[in-house]
Specification:
The protein has about 300 residues and is mainly α. The chain has helices at about 1-15, 25-50, 55-60, 75-85, 90-120, 125-135, 140-155, 160-170, 175-185, 190-195, 200-210, 215-230, 245-255, 260-290. The longest helix has about 35 residues, at about 260-290.
């Protein structure tokens, strides 16, 4: 008992103030989080409902949120339209998965390797490079579209996978994110200990730095996969066999009011892979933070 009292005093001494919450406060916080979660899930729920509405309910006035007579005819219509394409649907799916998977893997590695020396090493021009990375975040793809086309065309990459992979790889958001996380999450003493033990910079990067910043690069995986998954490449790719799934589905959904239901079904289909990646990465991020003490 005395030992427990001593531990209790030690805990109160560390924090200074003993925190307690009433049952009503806990219920209020739970209700608040539930409302926020429902508000954030509303667009996804609305997309699902719209995808199973018949045409008469989609164009009903006044518009209704819920569906009275759900149907899967919209998905059947998308399947039928995909069957009439020149190239099999499996080819478009492969192109999208390949671009999204390979692009995400390469981008996370490149962004992490570029962020490591910028955050933990000193060399001439470091401040200028860091400033250029921040400035590059201000430019949207619409601004750099013409210059990207000139460069890709000059390098002979039109109608190739490189035309779909290289432009997103030039985004500096991942470098900025990893650089900020590495500066705060990795103490200099850890790197010095690794150098004393004889570890090379590459060994410390893969064995020390990357495991320590796992929440950061998993977060980057979510954003990067979504970016590559939505790549259409209509400005660089004209060969039908190289086009991605979003490009062909957007073509299908642009058939006028008669395809409004198919358009809603296409939106749901394009949502599925990013949501799966988010669920997998989000659970891994939470687990990593729980075991590493990160907040």
């Amino acid at each position: 008992m005395q030992k427990a009292m001593r531990l209790h005093k030690m805990k109160r001494g560390r924090s200074g103030v003993r925190l307690s919450r009433s049952v009503g406060g806990t219920i209020a916080i739970a209700l608040f989080l539930l409302i926020i979660g429902a508000f954030m899930a509303l667009p996804i729920v609305y997309s699902l409902i719209q995808s199973v509405k018949p045409l008469d309910e989609i164009f009903a006035y006044p518009p209704r949120f819920f569906v009275k007579h759900p149907t899967f005819d919209n998905y059947v219509q998308v399947y039928q339209l995909c069957q009439s394409l020149w190239v099999p649907l499996s080819r478009y799916v492969f192109n999208s998965l390949f671009i999204a998977g390979a692009g995400t893997f390469v981008y996370v590695i490149l962004a992490s390797m570029a962020a490591f020396p910028l955050s933990k090493h000193k060399f001439p021009g470091k401040a200028l490079i860091a400033a250029l990375i921040v400035w590059a975040l201000l430019f949207r793809s619409e601004v750099t579209g013409i210059s990207q086309y000139i460069i890709i065309s000059g390098m002979g990459m039109i109608n190739t996978y490189w035309a779909l992979l290289l432009p997103p790889l030039a985004n500096t958001f991942g470098v900025f994110l990893m650089m900020q996380f590495m500066e705060s999450a990795i103490p200099e003493s850890v790197l010095e200990a690794g150098r004393i033990d004889g570890a090379t910079e590459y060994r410390m990067f893969y064995s020390v730095v990357m495991p320590a910043v796992k929440p950061a690069w998993l977060t980057l995986v979510i954003f990067t996969f979504q970016s590559f998954w939505n790549v259409t490449g209509v400005s660089f790719v004209y060969d039908e066999s190289l086009k991605t799934l979003p490009s062909v589905l957007s073509t299908i959904s642009s058939g006028g009011l008669a395809r409004a239901g198919a358009t809603a079904a296409v939106a749901v289909i394009l949502l599925i892979p990013p949501i799966i990646i988010f669920i997998i990465s989000q659970s891994s991020i939470s687990e990593t933070m729980a075991h590493s003490g990160l907040k």
